[in-house]
Amino acid sequence: MRFTPASIALAVLLTTVSSAGLSQRPDSQISPLSIEWQKAGEAARKAGNYPAANDALESALAVDPRNRTAYIELAEVARAQGLQGKAIRLYREALTLEPNDLTALVGQGEAMVEKGAIAKAKENLAQAQSLCKSNCALVGQLAAVIAKGPPATVLSAKDKVPAPKTTETETP
Fold this sequence. Notes:
Helix content is 67%, strand content 0%. It has eight helices and no strands.
């Protein structure tokens, strides 16, 4: 039996089309179990229990890694713990799933300001302004944070400059 190139191409096409229907659900359908874990994590974050919030949100992402809201909540937990670099990365994950997510853009911009990356935060502001055609509160919030600037850093004990030692000499 001879296979012609047309029959081979047809076989490949049918195999591809039939397997595509079996692979995954659409991105708009997040697992209900993931949403439950996400809500538990959000409640723990609001209560100030960051380790429990972190665990619940990571569980939500383990169940369904397409849960963009869980990435944003996990980034909020990281920011509350002072981990701005981790928060920026988590916001980036959310933006990978939906590049036009205004909440993730603004959150990432605020975390960048807290880290001291004002130029990058201004890029996020410009992108957020282009997405939000009317007067958006989130865009104004990010603009205010950028105008305020990064927080003043507190010197640690090792960074403090020691006072010069003075020697007192006794006069007879």
